[in-house]
Amino acid sequence: MAQFILPNIHSEQNPLRILGPAGEIFEFIRTGHSTGGKFIMSKTIVPPGVGPTPHLHHSTDEWFYTPNGGIVLFMGQNEYSDICNEPGNNTKKEKLYATNMGINELIYVPRNHVHAFINNTDKEQLLYMIWTPDTEDVSILNYFKSVGQEVTDINNIPTIEPLAKLRFVSEAPKFGINQSHDFWQYVEKVDYSSTPMDSNSDTLSRLLKDSESFLIADILV
Fold first, then answer.
1. Are 78 and 96 in contact (CB under 8 A)?
2. What are the per-10-residue average pLDDT scores of the chain (221 residues)?
3. Which of 3, 119, 171, 184 pairs as cysteine with 104 (C-beta 3.0–4.6 A)?
4. Within a domain: residue 113?
């Protein structure tokens, strides 16, 4: 896959940091407030061995960008448009394809597709995550606020609360998400043959370019 160079993204002032129940530390450097509702972006620290179990977003599309590689992304090819009909529940479980993301690699995951990721290295990895849209009615941030824990000191990360791990699954449908409680709940098997995945880089580039004016105007005010 061709490399994608993420442009320099200006962060909002005092971005919110949240410890997710799966162990990632999300720093929401851009939100719908500064992108005209077009997208929300997280500069995410992923500790070794950490990543969410397979899940689906029914209201947002998502990009993953690895400046240094180190992340294995899993994604299925089938669409599940009904939040009440998750894989394995009256349907076949999903076959996921695994891709070892390299340096400056971008992968696009459209809504209604099962996906997951994991840091498959022995050190922290940086992962940029972009969801679109980000509006009052549809925002992944509301989900993470509900199930995660705010990080006020990056050098003093709290311990993940057991209830946070339970809320991670139980609260998901309220935000248009199906979140599995273990890796194999939705998954029949994994194909490690590194099937190429789409980057949809043109769409992301337009989103990033169009949003800069919103942030600059906000700063000037």
1. no
2. 84 96 97 95 98 98 98 96 90 95 97 98 98 96 97 95 96 97 97 88 92 56 32
3. 3
4. yes
User: 9 in a domain, yes or no?
Assistant: no
Q: Is the pTM of this model over 0.85?
A: yes
Q: What is the DSSP annotation of the chain? A: -----PPPPPPPSS-EEEE-TTS-EEEEEE-HHHHTTS-EEEEEEE-TT--PPSEEESS-EEEEEESS--EEEEEESS----TTS-TTSSSPPEEEEEEEE-TTEEEEE-TT--EEEEE-SSS-EEEEEEEE---SSS-HHHHHHHHSEE-S-TTSPPPPPHHHHHHHHHSGGGGTEEE-SSTTSSEEEEE-S-------HHHHHHHHHHHHHHHHHHHH-
The domain that holds 91 is classified in CATH as: 2.60.120.10
- Asked if residue 37 is part of any domain, the answer here is yes
